[in-house]
Each structure stands twice: as structure tokens, then as C-alpha cells.
Amino acid sequence: MGISSGNITPILSILPEILLLILALVVLGLDLGLKKFSPALIGWVTVVGLIFSAIGGVMISGHQSGGLYIWGGMLRQDAAASVFQVIFITGAALTAFFALEDSKCVSAEFYFLLLISTLGMCLLAASSDLIMIYLSLELASIPLYILAGFHYRETSSVEAGLKYMLYGAVASTIMVFGFTFLYGFSGTTQLYAINAAIQTGQIPPMVTTMAVMLILAGVGYKISAVPFHFWAPDVYEGAPTVVAGFISTASKAAGFAVLLRLALTILPVLSPYSPYLLAAMAVASMLVGNLLAINQKNFKRLLAYSSIAQAGYILVGVAASNNLGAAGVTYYLMAYLVTNLTAFALAQVIGQANSNDDISSLAGLTQRSPVLAFSLLVSLLSLGGIPPFAGFVGKLLVFSAGVQAGMAWLVIVAVLNSVLSLYYYLKVLKIAFLDHPRETPLIKIETNSWRIAFIVCLAGILILGVIILPWYGWSITAASSLALY
Amino acid sequence: MHLSVLTFIIALPLLTGIVILLLPMSEKKAPRLLALISSLIALALSVWAYARYDIPAGGYQFIQKVDWLPALGISYHVGVDGISLPLVLLAGIVTASGVAVSWNIEERPREFFSFLMFLAASVFGVFCSLDLFMLFFFFEMAVFPKYLMILIWGSPKTREYGAMKLTLYLFLGSVVALVGVLAMVFLSGANTFDMLALEKAGFAADFQRLWFPFVFFGFAVLGGLFPFHSWAPDGHVAAPTAVSMLLAGVEMKVGAFAALRAGIMLLPEGARYWAYVILALATVNVVYGALIALVQTDFKYVIGFSSVSHMGLVMIGFATLNREGLMGAGLQMFSHGVMTALFFAIVGMVYDRTHTREINRLGGLIKVMPMAAVGFIISGLVSMGMPGFSGFTAEFPVFMGAWRSAPIVAVVAVLGIIVTAGYILLVVRRVFFGELPENMTGIIENVSGLDKFTIGFLSLIMIALGLFPSLMVPLVNSGVDRILLILGGR
């Protein structure tokens, strides 16, 4: 199994997680003890704490070369885990800032749940044991069910929370069912040990393929891939916009973190068909997401279907199951984090100004606020994969990986889909840049924190799109650390 | 650090575009002034590069290479040869003229000139690229300027349709080509996007035959090859004047150029295998484009379809794979770029004053805008391939090349030229001669001084190239030498 203690102690190697837990408790304590403070303070404390936690993550990532198994092989703190943890924490920090603009979300409970969910994601990225995967997946998901219903006076929000929870519960049950097969085959729950046990080839491939399909159902729900996507449009539409942004970026990244680890370790060994299963999921997600996005009238629903399609593109990189693919997926998720958070932040402030999320109420955005109109352009074109924005590099890398893995047909499907997606992104831009506004309530942004987070996101889109080298370096290090077993 | 002049040519419009966008919205005059200055400097720099290019030495010059992502062999790598240098010059000429004819644009001038500069930076970037990643990066960068410029400043009736159609067609073509390029980079084991390295990669013949159509036909969509041409007339007609000039004059050459550079030069065996298909399609381009132009009632559509027809000659020149054909194609790209820019500029001037593009409702305009009429006639003569104008210098070698490789193509394509003469003369007679319609008498103004200057400038270039082919032929010839070397000296 190769469990070694390395040169840092197990406690130290989960420093980011520990800091997150402390931070969550501090946030709760602040709420209890210091009622007279403005609630915005809690948001700022959360962000500062998250930054420390991210720094902790970066610091310990310098101390390990390969993978370090800790807690009896439950966790494997490697470069991939560190990079993904930084992605989640960044997403959480940006979301915490955006949330300050939404008065109905500014409360200690909100930040506490956000932090606990982030903690779950961080553990998930490092999980190397089936039990740990299940536990951390639930830890990441359960707070999100509550957050999705956080606008509890609005029935749509409550409905979103409930729907999200019911789907989530079923999906994780199915996944656990798949895990039981793996344990039955191999007698172990340790991810990197299952391989060794199964390679003897005693089990019929049809049975193992079924186990793989069950596991993919659980993870597919998390990344909102077709056919496990049905919750996404309703939840995105009903949930508070900041929460929808978090679900569509950080939570999706968490799903991909565990999927990547599975795809590079046990899936190919379990079933020779797993690349094709992943490819089929990719094709279905791209087609369904893009085709259904075309006729959406609600901006958040459009983003939901677009995010289903994006999951499809990313799955191309997972299906390639090579080093470049894993690096591409990581890069794509970084790009997608800043891009989609920008889009949802825009949906948030524009929705608040118009008191609806209709696409038609984006009309004349360029006259109401040129800066927001150009930000919309940047984020949608980045989603469409147009340079010099981050999405272009992400797409190019996963498509390259697909070609390298000999799946040129899949890449052809994917590029045709990106043409399809450009159609509806451009249609939204047309409304924002050409149509005349029906009504012109000013779009007011109350908080500096929203502005800071927004600028960080926009800068991220440009930086990831033009200066590729350092982020690609991270991604490829993460990818290589996954494959070491 | 050593900086190539090409870097300045690319960076200048890019930075100008950003600066213009940061100006306050109330600023009406500064954007156009900045755009004009910047495009004139870019033009001057490209003239300088053109003059300083060492023809006997040949090959790529003014090279600059900076690592971008070394792990995948991606770099910022610029350089020009005898094929791309005239196109850089062309982009400089058309951009500067485009700014000049858009001088009086009133709606959102800040965004207009900023986007125009982004578009210019994009085409400069593509022509100078020696790296396929960079080529795509710059090409796709133009998606939003193209789309938004047609959408916001285009002609109200068709702009939404035209903008979407053009953008999606161009994007589709480029991503199909991207798949082929990724195959070259990753399937062959070359693992680099560098075109100079890929030229030497020596791909297997089967591999070339399989992937050549992706790369070539993908890019050929941008070049308007039949049957993927229909975006061109619709898009050009919907676009505002300066954008029509840049799209038809330069952007279509981007497609043809990339098809040559990434298709024929990197996959020569594939090119030989598919040459007859390209010849057949391109011949259809020439004849079909001309015939459709003949029956148009919209002044601008005539020019739109004439572009489709003339780009067919470029593609024929490529597909001959011999010296005459390739040289003719190289010259035709430049000549047609200048010619069609002038055509669209004049169509725009006529429309701005008469508010109609219906040929039947126009007439006698030579009396009120003589300079525009003369410019249009000169463009028309170039278009017909009249000796003494650049069209002849360019088209004659194409026909010679076609005669050598497939005589039937030459015969049929020459028929296309006869039809061209037909529609040009028809338009000239109906629009510029005859009686001025009564509702226009006395209210139509002559074109402005800046417009006259632009017309004169573009006309002079075409006449100069017609009278003194030696201004460009040796340069293009040196570029063709290199292609023939790659093709195995046929």
C-alpha cells in the first residue's frame, strides 16, 4: 500500500482543513458572543480566514513530493488535493464576498454552512478511501441543501433545497451501493489497494462495469452530468444566486476532483469500458445542455444548462484519462471557477435590480451599466471558449487530451457543440448590447466586497487566458501526482 | 530583449483598442483620432517591413520567439515570408482606409473604433503567426468585435441574422480546423504547435490524407470556398462599411492564408491527394459566385458575391500546387483585398447619401460624386482582370497555373471572368450613368475630402501593382519557392 509518514506530521498535513474547522467555529462564536457587531464583519472574518487557510494549503503542498497517506490511508495529501483545495477555498472566499451584497444571506449560519461545505470538499479532494469519499461527499453536500433553501420565505428557494436534497440522497445511495461491490471484489476500501486486489482478473467485467456505472451515477450528480442533471436547472433557478454560483463551480469542481482520482486509479482497471462510459456521458451532457439552453428565458436556467454542457467538455478530459487530460480538467476548473462566478455575480446584481432573472431584462445593459455589460461579454465568451479569456485555454487543453488519447471523434463532437453554445451566448450578448431597455432601474452595488470579488474574478479570467505557464504548471503537477500509485 | 517590428504592428492596434475603450463615454472625437494615428503608424511599420524584407535571402524574417507554454511547444512566434508580408501590408492598408471612411460615425464611436482596432490586431496577429496556438488565439479573438460590430452598426434589417451567421460559420470553420491541428500536434508525436517544427515533422501519407480536409476545408470556410460560402455575402452586406472592408478585404484572406500555411504547407501529401476536389469546388466558386452576382438587385450583394467568386481564384491558385498558380494566388489575395475594400467603401458612401442600395432606384451618380464613380470603375477593371491593373497581374498567373495542372478548370474559370465583366458593367451603367432619379436630384452631396483621398489611395495601389508588377512579384515568388520546396519541387 505504501503508506509512509513523509516528513510532515499527519496533523500538519491537514492544516487547511483544521483551519477551516476553526474558522467555522469562530464564525458561530462571533454570532453568539458579539451580537452588536455588523453582520458584514462575519463575512470579512470568513474571507480573511479562508485566505489563511489557502496559504496553509499552499505551504504544506511544498512539503510533499509524491502522495502522503495519512490517517491509515483514509486521506492522500498530494499535489492534486492541494490544488483542488485552493480552488474550493478561492471559490468559497469569492462566494463569501458576493454574499454580502445579498442581505437575506448575510448571517452567521450562512457562513458557517459555507465553511463546512468547503471543509467537506477539501477532504473529498484528498480522500483515498471509499468510506472517506462517501463521508466527505455528504459533508460537502448537506450544508449545500440548506444553503439552496436559504431564502426560506420564497417557495422557489425552499423547493430548490428540497429537490437538491432528494436527488442528492438518492445519488449518494446508489454510489454507496456501487462501493459495496468494490469492497466485495477486493476486500479493501483503500482506493490504491483495490487496484492490486482486482488486477488478478477473477471477476467478470460485466459485474465490475455495473459497479462503475453505479459510482458514476453518484459522481455524475455532483458534476451535473447527463443523465444525472435533472436537479440542476430548478436548483440554480430557485436557490439564492450566490449559492447557485457556489454549487455550479466549487461543488462541481469537488465532484471532478474525486472523479479524476477514480478515473486515473481504479476505473480503467475495473472496466475496460469506463472511458467509453465517460465519453458517452460527455456527449450526452454537451448535447442536452446546449440544446436545452437555446430556448431558455431565464438567465439562471440558461447558466444551469450551460453548466451541464460545460461538465460535458470537462468530461472529455476525464475520458481521455491521460496526464494531459487530468491537467486540462484542473485548468478548466480553475478557469470555470472565475468565469462562472462572474456570470452568477452578474445574475445576482442584475436580478436584484430588476427583481426578476429574465434574459429579456438584460436588455440595454450596455446603457444601464457599460462595465457590467462588458463583464457579461467577458464571462460569456470565456464560457464559449473564446480567447483571450480563460475558457479558451481550458477547452484547448481538454480537447488536446482527447485527441492525444485517440478520441478524435469525441473532440469533433465537442467542438461542434462549442459552436452550438456560442449561439446562445451571443444571443444573450445581443440582448445586452443591442436591445433597448424596457425599464431602467439603476443597477446599484452596495458593497465594496462585491466589487473586490468581481474584479478578482475578471482579472482571473484574463490572467488564466493569457499567462498560461504557472497555472498549467500547477495543473500538470497535480495530474502527475494523481497517477502515482 | 529583441523586439520584432511585427510585435509592434500587432501590439499597437491592440493597445489602442484598450485605451479607446477606457476613454470616457462622452468623448466623441478622440477615439477616431487615436484609431487613425494608430492605424497609420501600423501601416507605416508594415511598409517599412515590406521595404526592408531581404528577398534574395527569403524565408521567414523579422522573427521573434518568446516561450508561452514550452511544455506543449507553444510560443509567441512571429515572422513573415513572401506570402504573408503582402497580407500584413494589405491589413495595414485596409485598416487605415476603414478608419478613414468611418470618420463620421455617430453611434457609440468609442466602442466602434475600439472594436475596429481589436479586429485589426487579430488579423495582423494571424498573418504574423508562426505558431498554430497563436494563430488560433488571434483568430478567435476577433469573434466578439466581428459579431458586435455587425450587430450594433450594421444595416438594421439583416444585421442580427448576418452577424450570427457570419460569426458561427467562421467559428465552425476554425474549430474544425482546430481538430485537424490538434491531430497534427498530438497524434503524430510532434508535440509542438510550432509551424516551423511541424513542417519538418514528416507526417505519414495516410495521416495527411485523413487530416488534410479538416485543416484545409475548416480554414477554407473562412476563405469562402463553395459550398461553405454563404456567410460571406450575408455577413458582408449586413456589416457597416469599415467592417465589410475588413471582412471581405482581409478576413477572407486570413482563411485562405491559414489554409495554405497549416493545410498545404504542413500536409503537402494531403494537398496533392485532395487537390482535384479543391479545384472543382473553387471553379464552382468562380462561376457560381459571378452568376449570382449578376442577378442581384442589391448593390452591396453584388460585391458580396463577387468576393466569393474572386476568392475562388485564390483557391484555384493554391490547388494547382505549381509556381504560377501559387504566385497568382498570393498576388490575388492582395489585389482582391484592396479592390474589394474600395468596392465596399464606395458602396458605403453611396448608401450613406442615397439611403438605398437597390440598383433600380439608383442612377446617374457620376454627376454628383464623380470621384466615387471613378474609383468604382477602377475597382471594376481590376475585378475583370484588365491589363494595367493589379487584377491582371494576379489572375493571369492563376490561369496559367490552372492550364498546366487542369486545363478544363482554366477554361471554365475564364468563363467566370466574362460573367464578372457582365455584372460589373451592368452595375456601373445603372448606378453611375443614366439619369439621376428625381427624388435624389439636388440633395445628394459629393463624397468628403477624406473619402476622396481614400479612394485615390486605394486606386493608386491597384494601378501601381498593375503597371509595375515587380513591386510585389519577386517577393511573392520568394515565398512560393519555399512552398515548392516543401511540395517536393514540382
From TrEMBL, chain A:
Its EC number is 7.1.1.-. Its main location: membrane. It is a multi-pass membrane protein. GO terms for molecular function: NADH dehydrogenase (quinone) (non-electrogenic) activity; NADH dehydrogenase (ubiquinone) activity; quinone binding. GO terms for biological process: ATP synthesis coupled electron transport. Residues 127-421 form the NADH:quinone oxidoreductase/Mrp antiporter transmembrane domain. The keyword Cell inner membrane does not apply. It is found in: Cell membrane; Endomembrane system; Membrane. The keyword Transport applies. The chain crosses the membrane at residues 12-34, 41-60, 80-98, 110-127, 133-152, 164-183, 203-221, 242-264, 276-295, 302-320, 332-350, 371-394, 406-426, 452-474. It is an enzyme of class 7 (translocase). Keywords: Cell membrane, Membrane, NAD, Quinone, Translocase, Transmembrane, Transmembrane helix, Transport, Ubiquinone. NDH-1 is composed of 14 different subunits. Subunits NuoA, H, J, K, L, M, N constitute the membrane sector of the complex. NDH-1 shuttles electrons from NADH, via FMN and iron-sulfur (Fe-S) centers, to quinones in the respiratory chain. The immediate electron acceptor for the enzyme in this species is believed to be ubiquinone. Couples the redox reaction to proton translocation (for every two electrons transferred, four hydrogen ions are translocated across the cytoplasmic membrane), and thus conserves the redox energy in a proton gradient. This is NADH-quinone oxidoreductase subunit N. It comes from Leptolinea tardivitalis. The lineage of its organism: Bacteria, Bacillati, Chloroflexota, Anaerolineae, Anaerolineales. The gene is nuoN.
From TrEMBL, chain B:
Residues 129-417 form the NADH:quinone oxidoreductase/Mrp antiporter transmembrane domain. It holds the Pfam family Proton_antipo_M. The keyword Membrane applies. GO terms for cellular component: endomembrane system; membrane. It comes from Leptolinea tardivitalis. Its main location: membrane. Belongs to the complex I subunit 4 family. Keywords: Membrane, Transmembrane, Transmembrane helix. It comes from the Bacteria. One of its GO terms (biological process) is electron transport coupled proton transport. InterPro entries: NADH_Q_OxRdtase_chainM/4, NADH_UbQ_OxRdtase, ND/Mrp_TM. GO terms for molecular function: NADH dehydrogenase (ubiquinone) activity; NADH dehydrogenase activity; ubiquinone binding. This is NADH:quinone oxidoreductase/Mrp antiporter transmembrane domain-containing protein. The chain crosses the membrane at residues 6-26, 33-51, 83-105, 112-127, 133-154, 166-190, 210-231, 243-267, 273-294, 301-321, 333-352, 364-386, 406-432, 453-476. It is a multi-pass membrane protein. It is found in: Endomembrane system; Membrane.
